[in-house]
Amino acid sequence: MSGGGCSIVWFRRDLRVGDNPALAAGVRAGAVIAVYIWAPEEEGHYYPGRVSRWWLKHSLAHLDSSLRSLGTSLITKRSPDSVSSLLEVIKSTGATQIFFNHLYDPLSLVRDHRAKEVLTAQGIAVRSFNADLLYEPWEVNDAHGHPFTTFAAFWERCLSMPYDPESPLLPPKRIISGDVSRCPSDTLVFEDELEKASNALLARAWSPGWSNADKALTTFINGPLIEYSKNRRKADSATTSFLSPHLHFGEVSVRKVFHLACIKQVLWANEGNKAGEESVNLFLKSIGLREYSRYMSFNHPHSHERPLLGHLKFFPWVINEGYFKTWRQGRTGYPLVDAGMRELWATGWLHDRIRVVVSSFFVKVLQLPWRWGMKYFWDTLLDADLESDALGWQYISGTLPDGRELDRIDNPQFEGYTFDPNGEYVRRWLPELSRLPTEWIHHPWNAPESVLQAAGIELGSNYPLPIVGIDAAKARLQEALSEMWQQEAASRAAVENGTDEGLGDSSESTPIAFPQDIQMEESHEPTRNNPPPVPRQYEDQMVPSMTSSLLRVEEEETSLHLRNSAEDSRGEVPTNVNVNQQAGGDTLNHGVLQTVHSNTRPYYDTAIGIRSSAEDSTAESSSVSRRERDGGVVPVWSPSSTSFSEQFVGDENGICNQFILLAEAPSVSPIDELEAVIPNWTLAARIGGSQKLQ
DNA sequence: AAGATGTTCTA
DNA sequence: AGAACATCT
C-alpha cells in the first residue's frame, strides 16, 4: 500500500489539520502532498455565492499557513474537473495513494465515486474516511435496519448508539512533504474586484480558518452555551454558536464539538444545573439536525430539489417573480420579515429563528416555490450548505413527515413580538421604522395615522403596506391545498387506470425553473440500524459510492438545462447598520457593502453532457447493498432504500423499483451513466425518476 | 379542586 | 395552529 510513493491528501470541506482522518492517514503513510482543487463548475447551479467564496479563500489561506508550519504546503489547482486534476497531480508527483474525507451531497457522491473508480483503475490506492459526522449515514438505522424518516427518532438513535463517535484526533506534529517541485499551484481567484469591495466588512465579524473555528468553539462552550436554552430564540442575541460556517467548511470537526459539549453537560449535570444540562441538549440537537441533513441527503439525494412527500409536487406554487424580488429586498411590509431579509443581504447571516420566519413567509404566505428561496439562501448565506438548507426548506415547506403542517401560516406580527419583543432587531435593520413605538413596530399597518406621522412613516411610500394580507394568504393557501389534493387524487386515479404514462410527468418531473430574476435584475434598481455487523474495522473504507442502473424513462428535464449565465444582482437594501437614517425617502442609503451592487456571477450550467430525451430513457437509480471493495465492506449508495414509509407517500412504483434495482444494479457501468449526470443539477432528478418515494 | 387562562413548544 | 404544560383564581 505504501510503496515508495507519497500520498495525496485531497482537502475539500475538511479544511483543518486537527481531527482530520485523511490527513492523519497520509502522515502515517509517509510523505504527503496536500491538495485543494477549486472546480466550481462541478457545482452547477450551486456555484458558491460571494460571501461563501470569501470564506473559502481565507480558510484555504489559513490552512496553507498551518501546513507550512508543519512542513509542507497546500497545492492549489484550478480545474473544470477534479478527477483529472488529481490525475495530473499524481503524474507530476509520483504519488501512489490518495486519502480524502467523505462528503454526502449528491454532487460529491457522484464525483467521489468516479474519482475512486478512475484512480483505482490507474493503480492508485484510494482510501476515504468519515470526518464530517458522528456516525455514517448507513450506521444509523431503525430496528428493522431501515433508515429513519423522522428526525426525533434518528437523533434518539444517534444518542444511544452502542458505540461512541470516534474521539477527535490530534493534529500531526510534523508533516513530511512530498516532492512538489514539478507540481506548481494555480492561483485561485475567489472574488473579483467588485466582490472584494462588497466583502470588505466581513472580516470585522468573521474569522475563517480552523484555529479561529477552535476559538469560536471554545468561546461558545465556555460562554453562551450555558444559557443557550434561554437565549436561543431572540432574533439578535449573540448567543448562538456562530459555528455554522466553520462547520460547513470543516474547519472544526463535529466530533470535537460533540465531545466538548458532552463534557460540559456532564459537569453541569453533576452540579445539578438543570438549565445548563438542557442547554447542551438543545445545542446538540442542532448539531443533530446537521447530521440529519447529511443523512437525508445520502438516503434521498434529490432532496435538494424535490419534495420528499410526493403530494407536494402537485402544489400550485405561485410563480411570481415580483413577489420573489420584494422578498429579497425586504419590502414585504412585514417588519420582521423585512428586517431579516435585509440582514441577510447585508451580512450573509441570519439567526436560525429568523431563517424560519422568512422562509415560512416565503412558502406559506407568498407561496413561492421553495427551491427559489433555497437558492437565494445558497447565494447569500455565509454558511450556505446544501444539505442543511435543503432540510430546512423542506421542513418549512411541510414536505417532510415530521415537518410543519402544510396549512399552518406563521404570522410574522406575532412572531415579531416573541422573537423581537422590543423591536430592536427591526429598528436596526429597518431604519425607516426606527421611530415607531414598540406597540406598532411589528404591525405598522394598524398604527394610527398620527403615530405614523410622528414616526415619519408614510405607508406605501417609505415603508410598504403588507404585500399580502395574512387572511388572504390563508384563503389562498386553503385553495392551493385543495387543488393539490385534487391533482394528487387525479394522478393516483390515472395510475390505477393505467393511463398514467406521461400524465403526471409534466407536473411532477419538471421542477420549476429558477426565475430569470434571480440571475438578472432590471436596471433601474441599483443592482447589485441494528448495530452494524462490523461496526468499526472498516471505518476508513466506508466509501459511499453510487451505482446506477437502467430504470425507465421518467425524466425530461428541459427547462432546467438551459440556463444562461447572467448577472446576479439584488434589490437595494440598506446596509448601513448604524441606525440613524433619514426616515424619508424610499431610497435607502448606500452603506458600505452596497457600494457595489452588482455582482456578476457566472452560472456554470454544463449543459453539454445533457443527454437527449431518448437517452433519458435511462434514469439513474441505485440501491443499497454491501459489497466488497478494497477488502472492506462498502455500502453502495442508494437514494431510495426506503421500504418504510407510508409517510413518504409513495407510489408503489417507487417501492417496486427499489427491489428491481437491487437486482439490476451491478449490470451497468456506473461511470458511463454517471458521466452524463455529472452536470449535477439534473442528477437528483434523474436518480429518482419520478418516484414519489424519495 | 376544578376550571379557566396563559405560556411554550414544535425539525 | 394546536398540544402539553404551567399558573392563576
UniProtKB/TrEMBL annotation:
Q: Decide whether keyword Nuclease is in the record.
A: no
Q: Which organism is it from?
A: Quillaja saponaria (Soap bark tree)
Residues annotated as binding FAD: Y228, T240, S241, F242, L243, S244, F283, D383, A384, D385
Instruction: State if Transferase is listed as a keyword.
Output: no
Task: List residues traversing the bilayer.
Answer: none
Q: Which cofactor does it need?
A: (6R)-5,10-methylene-5,6,7,8-tetrahydrofolate; FAD
UniProt-recorded name of the protein: Blue light photoreceptor
Protein family membership: Belongs to the DNA photolyase class-1 family.
A GO term (biological process) for this protein? response to low fluence blue light stimulus by blue low-fluence system
Query: Which stretches does the entry tag as region Disordered?
Result: 491-511, 554-587, 613-634
The beginning of the lineage is:
Eukaryota, Viridiplantae, Streptophyta, Embryophyta, Tracheophyta
